[in-house]
Write a structure and sequence with these properties.
The complex is a heterotrimer. Chain A is mostly helical. Chain A has 13 helices and two strands. In chain A, 70% of the residues lie in helices and 4% in strands. The chains are: A mainly alpha, B mainly alpha, C alpha+beta.
Chain lengths: 308, 286, 359
């Protein structure tokens, strides 16, 4: 604080601190506190707000456990509340997306950092960036076209002879959603890992090679440990973005692939029950944060490593 | 090694690029297909009618205008807040820095759904509490702006902070020593150094805002942005006007990317020439 | 215009660490004054206190007779040249130089004219529209000086500005700096850890160690008559003998050491214990022992360095000694392993106390 004053004087320091305060208080902390508070209030007609029935309760949260459905896992059938199931599936498929993105992005990140001719790297990065600049809804829409029953993917596979009958891609559970999420978020995995690998001294790789290490061992013992912060931040980003995505599941989802954000959206915008929606949103925030914290603790990375 | 593995790596890169770019090509191609459904198969012949239909689509044009002003507002506010935050973070230390920095970064990870709902609830509740009909407290795109700023400012902050790390605080002292006021130091020394990052931050903020859906969906009231409009179109049976729009957006992106790249190369050339001159001067002296 | 600077009992603490302890010095207007000392001795802290970036914990700093207490850097009649020069890379040279005028609201044409004048003064005409990255190290140096001169300071403060340059350029710039100082008549305060720089350029030098000023004198005095062991060994080389003062009379004393009995000038030694310092170039090597101050040695290592010859020898009592012989063309180079006598003039050797530090 003293350094701030010394470097920029009291007037500018005051202005900058007010800006930071406005951001963090008015746009982040207070809204979330309000969300939390609202989530414990019942959904009432306007005339009854503040009335005797407007008391705090955990009812909104308990709604998560309403409405049992039958589900099966490994052949065992069991009853589970529908929203709990939606939530668990959302978490599960977000993890699947993160892992698949990691598998797809790691080789390319290594290629960009250590193999490709540095002269063509800017062009390559530019080409990769183009889809990122094109809006998310259009990227999902592009896959909606490709995966259509009479779309180009089926046409291509039929022409090559890999399949005999066209496949209903968007009606196969979470297939469409997972493909769409990977396409949309794989770059958020690629660039952190690329940055991390790039800072690895190439001599270390060559030294390991010189000592006779096979290629997989070089990756396992040298490159991956060095790239861990990048991998962790990529995984956290992709997981959070996937779990919080609303567009992709809405556009590419099938009748059986309900995403938790869709549940929240329906509660908020269709049922207009802001209070229950608040409870769900808060659950999403807390449980995802918990999940990510545990993962970060397991892999021993800090929040400050996540940046960039 | 490596010949085979090297070849495999190149092949993988090409496949990855196809995976990233093919959907965009398919989407653009469908804009020219004379078919009621947006697809490239079966090909029913060239047409540009989807472009004229797009221009005629008033709702889309309206949404387009909305998107632009929201994006400009988000870029402006985020740049101001993000730059101030980066400067503050850069000159504090210890626990306060850790806490503030963590809080700022965590906004990027908060699901957009949560940001949207919480922003909406806070401002409408404040309006109810004060009992005012002032527009700020009603649902609408201005709330979308505030919601989007809450995490986009963090992205700007990260970009500016990275640039600040290469800033020599000695320059500020030199300017102060020469008699500059704090405001003059900020305007003539610090900000010019940060302009590249601020520019990049503004671009990122602008594009992030354009593609934002989650926050907007929960705060927009009745107004449309392009993303929301396209979303509703995709859900309710589409004509390829969306493809025409997508094609134009991709073209704009490409042109901007090429301009950026040309500019970057030109600057690198100029800088290399300057350094060569400095080396020659050095040698001439000895 | 130039002003004198007075430091009266100036102290500066960083937490519990005392960076500058009770500094007293009076620098005359137009003087070229250097603070010389190893890194961490407090010299940069003094400079930053004079320029106003740090406030002294105690004591008074006066510039031109005015107390500087509470004056911010931009209110003081000083201009600082930074160790890394701190040129503004995004401005062309002339804007760099005239920045101090720009922030004072001087109009553009005047600023431009002033910048061109100053560029001529520092011998860099025609560089006005170049960018900083187009200049060599030496040229950047001159721009930094011109920028500092533009605000017509009464005092210039230079923080090791030559340390980034390579040897040859550094020597060239020494003469240049000295010439610019004489031309402008501005008081220069120069910070360095390089004794050669300090001795070559300064009117007076203040040698510092551990936050204390050890000695203030002109360069010859510093080299020839150091007041204590720190100054003697920081500035130049020495042969050092530890021993005991025995008889003292009229500034001379006899001194008993394990290597023999010597006679030398007596410095401000309290008590009997002390050290005797004699410079290698003040010693002689000869085949026969002289009247006094002669030590029998065996020549160990001889290195021929052009203008002089350095001889490392071991005394019979086990001390390692160095002798520097001027190469006047006729000097014979001692043979390896030769038995000789090293001797020195009593007037050229001194018995000195250790450095002045807090007890």
């Amino acid at each position: 604080m003293q350094e701030l004053l010394r470097r920029y004087g009291s007037g500018l320091t005051l202005i900058m601190c007010l800006l930071v305060a406005f951001w963090l208080l008015m746009l982040v902390i207070v809204p979330n506190i309000t969300l939390f508070e609202q989530s414990f209030r019942p959904y009432l007609p306007v005339s009854e707000i503040g009335g005797p029935r407007d008391v705090y309760s955990a009812n909104n949260y308990l709604k998560v456990f309403e409405g049992q459905v039958t589900s099966s896992l490994f052949g065992i059938e069991f009853e589970i509340p529908v929203r709990v199931r939606t939530f668990l599936l959302t978490i599960w498929y977000s993890m699947v997306v993160a892992v698949l993105c990691l598998m797809l992005a790691y080789p390319l990140a290594y290629y960009m950092a250590k193999i490709v001719n540095p002269k063509s790297l800017p062009t390559l990065i530019l080409l990769l960036f183009i889809p990122l600049w094109v809006s998310e809804v259009l990227r999902a829409f592009a896959w909606w076209i490709i995966l259509a029953f009479k779309g180009p993917l089926n046409a291509l596979l039929l022409a090559v002879g890999l399949i005999e009958d066209p496949i209903r891609w968007t009606n196969m559970g979470f297939t469409g959603v997972v493909i769409g999420l990977i396409y949309t978020y794989v770059l958020f995995m690629l660039f952190p890992i690329y940055n991390a690998i790039q800072s690895l001294d190439t001599n270390q790789i060559e030294a390991a090679e010189d000592l006779g290490a096979p290629w997989w061992k070089i990756h396992w013992r040298i490159v991956i440990p060095h790239a861990k912060p990048g991998i962790a931040s990529g995984c956290v980003m992709v997981f959070m973005l996937s779990a919080g995505s609303l567009l992709v599941p809405s556009i590419l989802g099938s009748t059986t692939s309900q995403w938790f954000t869709q549940t929240i959206n329906e509660t908020f915008n269709d049922a207009l029950d802001w209070n229950t929606a608040s409870a769900y949103a808060f659950l999403l925030l807390i449980l995802c944060t918990l999940f990510v914290s545990v993962a970060m603790w397991l892999f021993r990375v800090k929040l400050s490593d996540i940046a960039k | 090694m490596h010949k085979t593995r090297q070849t495999l790596a190149h092949v993988y890169m090409v496949l990855f690029l196809i995976f990233m770019l093919a959907p965009l090509i398919v989407m653009s191609g469908a804009a020219f297909n004379d078919s009621k459904l947006p697809s490239i198969v079966p090909w029913r012949g060239w047409t540009t009618m989807w472009f004229s239909e797009m221009i005629a689509d008033e709702r889309m044009m309206w949404a387009f205008a909305n998107t632009l002003w929201v994006a400009v507002a988000v870029a402006l506010i985020s740049v101001v807040i993000g730059t101030a935050s980066a400067i503050v973070i850069n000159s504090i230390a210890g626990r306060a820095r850790t806490v503030l920095y963590g809080l700022m970064i965590s906004t990027i990870l908060i699901p957009g759904v949560v940001i949207g709902i919480s922003t909406m609830i806070l401002w409408t509740k404040m309006g109810n509490a004060v009992g005012t009909e002032f527009f700020l407290f009603n649902p609408g795109l201005h709330l979308s702006v505030l919601g989007q700023v809450s995490y986009i400012a963090a992205m700007v902050m990260l970009l500016v902070l990275a640039r600040l790390q290469s800033f020599d605080a000695g320059l500020e002292e030199a300017a102060l020593d020469l008699g500059a006021s704090h405001a003059q130091v900020m305007r003539r020394i610090l900000l010019p150094h940060l302009y590249p990052a601020i520019g990049a931050g503004a671009a990122v903020a602008f594009f992030q805002s354009i593609e934002n859906f989650n926050v907007t969906q929960f705060t927009r009231g009745g107004a449309d942005t392009l993303t929301v409009y396209v979303f509703s179109k995709v859900r309710a049976g589409i004509t390829p006007t969306i493809n025409a729009l997508a094609f134009l957006l991709i073209c704009v992106t490409l042109v901007l990317a090429v301009i950026y790249e040309i500019n970057r190369r030109r600057r690198a050339r100029i800088e290399a020439a300057r350094e060569a001159e400095a080396r020659r001067a050095e040698e001439a002296m000895l | 215009m130039s002003a004198g600077i007075d430091l009266e009992n100036v102290c500066c603490d960083f937490g519990t660490f005392r960076a500058v302890d009770n500094a007293n010095v009076s620098i005359k207007p137009g003087e070229f004054f250097s603070f010389l000392g190893p890194s961490g001795c407090g010299k940069t802290t003094i400079l930053r206190m004079v320029s106003g970036f740090i406030e002294p914990t105690q004591g008074t700093i006066r510039i031109g007779g005015n107390d500087m207490k509470g004056q911010r850097p931009n209110q003081r009649p000083t201009a600082l040249i930074f160790q890394n020069l701190a040129l503004f890379a995004l401005m062309p040279i002339w804007e760099n130089i005239s920045f101090g005028l720009e922030v004072r609201g001087v109009d553009k044409a005047t600023r431009r004219r002033k910048a061109e004048e100053l560029l001529k003064l520092v011998d860099l005409p025609g560089a006005a529209d170049k960018m900083v990255s187009q200049l060599s190290g030496g040229q950047k140096q001159r721009v930094a000086i011109a920028r500092a001169l533009a605000v017509e300071p009464q005092v210039m403060l230079l923080d090791e500005p030559l340390s980034a340059l390579d040897l040859k350029l550094r020597q060239h710039m020494r003469a240049e700096l000295r010439a610019i100082q004489k031309r402008t008549g501005v008081t220069f305060i120069y910070i360095t850890h390089d004794q050669g720089e300090a001795l070559a350029m300064s009117d007076r030098v203040g040698v510092m160690s551990q936050g204390r000023i050890q000695q203030i004198a002109d360069p010859r005095e510093i080299y020839n008559n150091p007041v204590n062991g720190f100054v003697a060994s920081f500035v130049g080389e020495n042969n050092i003998f530890t021993g005991e003062v025995q008889q003292a009379a009229s500034g001379m004393a006899s001194f008993a050491t394990p290597h023999g009995q010597f006679r030398a000038r007596l410095g401000e030694v309290t008590g009997k214990a002390g050290k005797l310092y004699v410079r290698p170039e003040h010693t002689l090597l000869s085949a026969t022992a002289g009247a006094e101050n002669a030590i029998p040695v065996t020549v160990g290592d001889v290195s021929f360095e052009g203008n002089f010859i350095t001889v490392h020898a071991t005394s019979d009592s086990g001390a390692t000694l160095t002798s520097e012989l001027r190469n006047d063309g006729s000097a014979t180079v001692p043979a390896l392993g030769a038995k000789m006598f090293m001797s020195f003039d009593a007037a050229r050797a001194a018995i000195l106390p250790d450095a002045n530090v807090r007890g």
